[in-house]
Amino acid sequence: MVATVIKPSPGQKRSSWVLYPMFHFINIRELTFLFFAACVLTSQSLANDQEFMEDFLKREYSLSKPYRGLGFSSSSQWDLMGTAMVTPDHVRLTPDLQSRQGAVWSRIPLVLRDWELKVHFKIHGLGKKNLNGDGLAVWLTRDRMQNGPVFGNMNQFIGLGVFVDTYPNADKRHDRAFPYISVMLGNGTLSYDHDQDGRLTELGGCTAMVRNAIYNTFLLLRYSKYRLTLMVDVDGKQEWKHCADITGLRLPTGYFFGASSATGDLSDNHDIISMKLYQLTVERSLEEEKEVEEEEEVTVPRVVDMEQFQVVVQEEGMSGVQFFFTLLFSILGLGVLAVV
């Protein structure tokens, strides 16, 4: 039996050679189309999550190495105050010495409607835990270059204050771990109460282990659509963690950014490495744009439904159990006296 070998003709060879790349090209084209479609859908999803935000660094409002815009000349964009001093690596607001105050303030009033501020800072010292103080603050206020008792700035301020508090003044009365970062909105009449660690005027906050940290420590403030978000990155994971979220907040324009610090009987080094401001481009609906245009100009900061942020602080005193046993023993004592 003889096997028959059928050889393809030259025409058949040419036909199969032409058809195979054609099918291969069709597959690649389909895969490419699917890939781009997936990219478009993904980008649309991300855009929706980010509310079409695009960030642009605004150097005139920013402070970073080599700190050329910082000084006492007429062309400087930032001013130093108190014990604040410039080094090649940071701006030291206060050294690890008692009874010091220092600050750095922008000279340029903020005119942006939507913005994001990223602050790189460092708090460190030789004192043991709870034997250090007092912390630092980041500001956006009407008044600048003012000394005072609130982390080196004036009390009853008008504007926004973010406090990185490292010393627990009211630790016995509050279930709170320190260091603690909190947000306060001042209208010129509210006072920050150090004895209560600012609880009575706090809008939100969180615990953040920022003192003597082995990693870089950052906080981020984002203000957009009357919403203020505070996030922190302090554990070296390069991930922002939620700290506070405040809605219905109205901030005027024309205020100044700053950072300040103070030490008392206890001390620490308080350093600002950078403060970088980004302008946010946010897509608004026609209704939102109309609302912005029709809204009256805000002259004093305010937040809608302020009562939702009020914290009831219990003073030191007897707990319910203590009161019960005190009353019980008092009754028993009176009974014994009556028998005698």
UniProtKB/TrEMBL annotation:
<dbReference type="GO" id="GO:0006888">
    <property type="term" value="P:endoplasmic reticulum to Golgi vesicle-mediated transport"/>
</dbReference>
<feature type="domain" description="L-type lectin-like">
    <location>
        <begin position="55"/>
        <end position="280"/>
    </location>
</feature>
<keyword id="KW-1015">Disulfide bond</keyword>
<feature type="transmembrane region" description="Helical">
    <location>
        <begin position="320"/>
        <end position="339"/>
    </location>
</feature>
<dbReference type="InterPro" id="IPR005052">
    <property type="entry name" value="Lectin_leg"/>
</dbReference>
<keyword id="KW-0472">Membrane</keyword>
<protein>
    <recommendedName>
        <fullName>L-type lectin-like domain-containing protein</fullName>
    </recommendedName>
</protein>
<keyword id="KW-0430">Lectin</keyword>
<dbReference type="GO" id="GO:0005789">
    <property type="term" value="C:endoplasmic reticulum membrane"/>
</dbReference>
<dbReference type="InterPro" id="IPR051136">
    <property type="entry name" value="Intracellular_Lectin-GPT"/>
</dbReference>
<keyword id="KW-0333">Golgi apparatus</keyword>
<keyword id="KW-0732">Signal</keyword>
<keyword id="KW-0812">Transmembrane</keyword>
<dbReference type="GO" id="GO:0046872">
    <property type="term" value="F:metal ion binding"/>
</dbReference>
<dbReference type="GO" id="GO:0005537">
    <property type="term" value="F:D-mannose binding"/>
</dbReference>
<keyword id="KW-0479">Metal-binding</keyword>
<dbReference type="GO" id="GO:0005793">
    <property type="term" value="C:endoplasmic reticulum-Golgi intermediate compartment"/>
</dbReference>
<keyword id="KW-0325">Glycoprotein</keyword>
<keyword id="KW-1133">Transmembrane helix</keyword>
<dbReference type="GO" id="GO:0030134">
    <property type="term" value="C:COPII-coated ER to Golgi transport vesicle"/>
</dbReference>
<dbReference type="Pfam" id="PF03388">
    <property type="entry name" value="Lectin_leg-like"/>
</dbReference>
<dbReference type="GO" id="GO:0000139">
    <property type="term" value="C:Golgi membrane"/>
</dbReference>
<dbReference type="InterPro" id="IPR013320">
    <property type="entry name" value="ConA-like_dom_sf"/>
</dbReference>
